[in-house]
Design a protein that fits this description.
alpha/beta; Carbamate kinase; two-stranded antiparallel sheet; 8 helices
């Protein structure tokens, strides 16, 4: 299995490592080294990262502090902080990057322009997409699916803290079954927590497969890109 261009979706929560919030420098370094290894094989890498380690829109709503739209915009800014941290870590290891934001922040990142993003990838730069879709009520999963379709990625690799898709929460149900492969239709029917339904629908309609895997296990990204069967493939 060989990919030319991938979209790597990382969760903000994973960046916390063992902390209660914020960014664990050890996790950041590990991710940077894993991505560096992928880039050095010649694969074009785009990244979308969440912001849950800093702020999630639903937090503000549940706390009664702000309305949903305002909270979502705050969450978008959190993704940009994470994207900047990842950019800095990658460049520390000599990887050329471009940070593109769905919300204009000209002093720190480029605005998202589809053709420019593709050109950066063709030149071997890692492109990090920040600020989600730029719209409230859409998750970073949806942003990952949208950007992957726009840049014509071969696949979405969703790096999480679990090693694939299960029939139930494996931490709560010891009988939970792990799927090696599963169709988009089955994800719908079983209500599995792979991505939100908008993201899944975008992928299904554009025949864009997803692999859910454990990004925290060293070497998993490399092994996956070399064709080993890791995580769960969602396709068809």
């Amino acid at each position: 299995m060989k990919y030319n261009r991938i979209l790597l979706k990382l969760s903000g929560e994973s960046l916390m490592g063992k902390k209660d919030f914020g960014i664990d420098s050890n996790v950041l370094e590990q991710y940077a080294l894993e991505i560096k290894e992928a880039v050095e094989t010649g694969i074009q890498v785009a990244i979308v990262i969440g912001g849950g380690n800093i702020f999630r829109g639903v937090q503000g709503v549940q706390g009664g502090l702000v309305d949903r739209a305002q909270g979502d915009y705050m969450g978008m800014l959190a993704t940009v902080i994470n994207a900047m941290a990842l950019q800095g870590a990658l460049e520390n290891y000599g990887i050329k990057t471009r940070l593109m934001s769905a919300i204009k922040m000209e002093e720190i990142c480029e605005p998202f322009i589809r053709r420019r993003a593709i050109r950066h990838l063709e030149k071997g730069r890692v492109v990090i997409f920040g600020a989600g879709t730029g719209n409230p009520y859409f998750t970073t999963d949806t942003a990952a699916s949208l950007r992957a379709v726009e840049i014509e990625a071969d696949i979405i690799l969703k790096g999480t803290r679990v090693d694939g898709v299960y029939s139930a929460d494996p931490e709560k149900d010891p009988k939970a079954e792990k799927y090696e492969t599963i169709s988009f239709t089955e994800v719908y029917k079983q209500g599995l927590n792979v991505m939100d339904l908008t993201a899944i629908t975008l992928c299904k309609e554009n025949n864009l497969p997803i692999i859910v895997f454990d990004m925290d296990r060293k070497g998993n990204l490399r092994d996956l890109l070399q064709g080993r069967s890791i995580g769960t493939l969602v396709a068809g």
